[in-house]
Amino acid sequence: MLKCKDCKKWLTSTRTQLAVDSNNTVKKVINIPAKECHMCGKITINDSTMKRVNRYINECKEEVLDFQKYEDDESVASNELLL
Ligand SMILES: [Zn+2]
Question: Does the global pTM surpass 0.85?
């Protein structure tokens, strides 16, 4: 569990979206798991999630990237590698 650096309040789980620059086009990433502070409304995305966002952005051909969909695809792909 994480606390807000400013308010010292517990953060709650939420989903957020981001606009990310990729090869001179701005792509929208939706359904990103994040933590939200209800006091100040600040949204925090952890580093490993951000790394995956950046990786999916490079693979994504569409303008809108559904993070959850890529997560699902990725777990299928890694399962296949284990076979
Ligand atoms: Zn806060």
Answer: no
Range of the domain at 76: 19-32+46-82
User: Does residue 4 lie within any of the structural domains?
Assistant: no
| 12 alpha carbon – ligand 1 mean position (Å) | 11
- Give the contacts of 53 (CB within 8 A, at least 6 positions apart): 18, 20, 29, 32, 45, 67
Distance 34 CA to ligand 1 centre (A): 14
CA of 8 to the centre of ligand 1 (A): 7
> Is residue 40 included in any domain, yes or no?
no
pLDDT per residue as tens digits for the range 41-79: 999 999 999 999 999 998 888 999 999 999 988 777 777
> Is 13 inside a domain boundary?
no
Task: Provide the number of structural domains found in the chain.
Answer: 1
Token reading at 22? 């990729």
